[in-house]
# Entry
Amino acid sequence: MNDFIFHKLPEQLGEIEIATNESGFSMPSERKTGSLLKTLASSKPGGKFLELGTGTGLSTAWLLSGMCANSSLLSVDNDEAPQKIAVRYLDSDPRVTFLCEDGFKVIQHQKAASFDLIFADAWPGKYFLLDETLELLKPGGFYVIDDMLPQSNWPEGHDQKAAQLLEILHQKENFSVCQLEWATGVVICTRLS
# Structure
């Protein structure tokens, strides 16, 4: 199987990838993760989605490509520079709202059980405020993280943080956890109750 063939790319993806490379942004999400996000988003018609860590909007484009017309996406990042790329190419889509704010504040101001899918691609929601973030999911909702396999840009000791996070997730009794050695290391958790 060739898992590098993507039949339907998001319309703006190529332009965002070029702008990302030109900007020097060093933490882009890859196409494999994006295609999975698209598939998961398409399973939640009329869904409400949260992306913690917009970056340059690569994952945002994939999420939008899987969402139906009456779905909504809140995409949050605390760094305006990369998020400007996402805004430039995706802000015309009425389903997405970009927020340049500290993820900690955003997580703490959301209502419990209000999202169908959360893609946590930033420290807030992944390594900090994990329980609070998981509380934001509706039953049947997906919590998705990537970069859980060793990465060349990990600082010393980060492998222990990642291992600890995986251990914590596997101990959550109200979540079904699937850990994939695929792409950069994807974990999908489904809230059971």
Notes: The CA atoms of residues 86 and 92 lie 10 Å apart. The first strand starts at residue 48 and ends at 52. The chain has a mean pLDDT of 95.
